[in-house]
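Attaching the record inline, Q. Sequence:
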Amino acid sequence: MEHQHPNRPPRLSNVFKKFDPPLYFITCCTFDRKPLLDNDRFHDHFVKLMTRKYHDGIVCGEYVIMPDHLHFFLRIDPNRYTLGKTIGFLKQSLSKPLRDIGVAQPHWQPGFFDHILRSANSYSEKWDYVSNNPLRAGLVQRANDWKYQGTIGAICY
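Structure, as predicted:
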């Protein structure tokens, strides 16, 4: 069993068995919610990184990159990776384009939000909410106009 942090609720092993591998909805926020992410350099780096990892047991589905946070759907090979270490690796790797343009660290808030999706309906509800974030934030007139979103791999429910 994976070591649990004492201040976090334990993951239920029966949840993992029922949804194997689990489909996660992930949100990562920039440090102090600084608007660092909505640019072509970061977007291109994110797509290239997640495309490389697709055949390595880290599969990103739909995603939306907002100025100060990132939402994505993720499946990982639980025999090779833990969620915490995977997100840590991704955040570290996603700091590269920020370092390249001289943005001082830290780039990311500690931790991340994760939710295990348990049904196709739950997935659809999350995607509807996330894909409309740019519209709700007043960044575009129509949600589909936001250029920092897409799909890396198919991770259907």
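Residues 18-151 form a domain with the Alpha-Beta Plaits fold (CATH 3.30.70.1290). The longest helix spans residues 40-53.

More tomorrow.
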